[in-house]
Structure formats: structure tokens, C-alpha cells
Amino acid sequence: MNSMRISLIALLAVTSASLPSVLADEYLLDDQHTSIVFAANHFGLSNTYGMFGKYAGKFSVDMANPTAAQFQVVIDPASLDTKSEKRDEHLRGPDFFDVKQFPRITFVSTSVAPGKDDKSLNVTGELNLHGVTRQLLISMSKTGEGKGPYGDERIGFSGRFVVKRSEFGMTNMVPQIGDDVNVLISIEGIKQ
Description:
With 192 residues, this protein is mainly beta.
């Protein structure tokens, strides 16, 4: 286990200590079956896609009692990958993510409400990115639930949201590179 993963797990342990105990089932993110993908427009011509490769998280959920759900995720922004090492290094630098000064992106839910149907949740929380914390709403849909390949209980969710990077102090090259960054998440949790 590398030091970044240990740091992410330690941060989750500290932040989860402040959350109230609930009867909902608790899950750890399966980092092999979770994806965090982003897309930003490039000069109005096309979208450039990337993903984060290192993150940790946990969540508790009871679909019969959605308001008891909680979500926490910590992302290592240095793990971003757009399939261009030169671009990735630029994105990691001070013009964009500035990963030396801001080594983590965090999301902690503050409330969860039922969504449009019995498989949906509206998750409101605080996103900390680039040293700025803002409220964010993510509409999540349950994609499946059951036993994994080793008999463990699992559940999956997907969601989409938009981050306006200028609201987080990431104003370099706006509007040439889109201010609105579309984010797609697909998470799979292992029941604890």
C-alpha cells in the first residue's frame, strides 16, 4: 500500500469520526470498480476526457431510509490521466490543479434526500477543490446490488454533475478551455 493510499484512508478515518452513527449499511469504495471521469471543452472544438486513478471513500446507505445515507470521497488530483503526459503535467501544475499546494480533493455529504424514484438519491455535500469549498448537488442512481465474485455484498451507484472551475479559483484559460467541467462517477462499494 503506497503512502498516498494510506494518507487518503487516514483522512477518511478522521473525517468519518465526526459523522453521526446510523443504521444504514456501510460500504468501502472498491477502487478497482469505481471510476471518476471528467470532460472539459477545448476551444469550442471538442471535449477532452480524463480520469482520476487514486481515491478512497466510504458511504452508508439504506434505500428505504435515504436521509440516513452519507458519502465521503478523497481524490488524489495528481493521479489525473488524460492520455497525454505533457497535458497531465500542465494540469497538475499551478495553472490548474496545483497539486503541490492542494494535494487532495474531498467531498463529504451534508444531506441526502430521495430522488425521482426508489433507486435515486439527491446527495448534497461540500466539495473542496483547489482550496475552495462549495456546496454541490449530485443526483445518484443505484445501478445494482448483490454478491461480488468472492461472495461479498456490493452495491453500485452512478451520477453526473458539473463543476464550474472558476468558482474554485481555477480561472486559467477560461473560456478557451471550458469553465464547466462535466463529471461522471460510477462507484461500487463493498459492504463492511
